[in-house]
Amino acid sequence: MKRLRIYVSFIFLSIAFLMSCTENSRAKKFGGTAKLEVPCNQRVTNITWKGEELWYSTLPMEENYVPQTHNFREESSFGLFEGNYLLIETKCN
Q1: Could you tell me what percent of the chain has a pLDDT over 70?
Q2: pLDDT tens-digit profile of 51-60?
Q3: pLDDT at res. 20
Q4: Which of 1, 11, 32, 78 sits a CA distance of 20 to 30 A from 41?
Q5: Residue 93 lies in a domain
């Protein structure tokens, strides 16, 4: 019975830890996919991480620009916990 309580406590704490992480942190540390919708009529020019925060720069879209989805992904040494971040551009009228 004591062992069961320890396992249940461990599972509960693990779930609580994962839920307290931001989407940025989860994608970066534990893998998976996170999405970010870039503000309307802005196009992505650069993206990087600074600690746990995702930084990206944008410029206004030209009239004939076709919005894109940028796939920013991690290639880890051991192939574990590879994260994927999608930046989705949109054009608003």
Answers
A1: 65
A2: 778 899 999 9
A3: 45
A4: 32
A5: no
Q: Flag whether 14 is in a domain.
A: yes
DSSP bridge partners of 69:
88
Quote the number of domains for the chain: 1
In a 3-state reduction of DSSP, which class is residue 87? strand
Residue 47 covered by a domain: yes
Any domain includes 63: yes
Structural domain span for residue 35: 2-88
Kindly write down the DSSP assignment for every residue of 17-70, as one continuous string: HHHHS-HHHIIIII-EEEEEEPPTTEEEEEEEEETTEEEEEEEEPPTTPPP-EE
How many Cα atoms sit within 13 Å of 57 on the Cβ side?
A: 3
9-44 pLDDT, tens digit per residue, is: 667 555 655 454 555 555 555 567 888 899 999 999
CB contact at 8 A, 85 and 73: yes
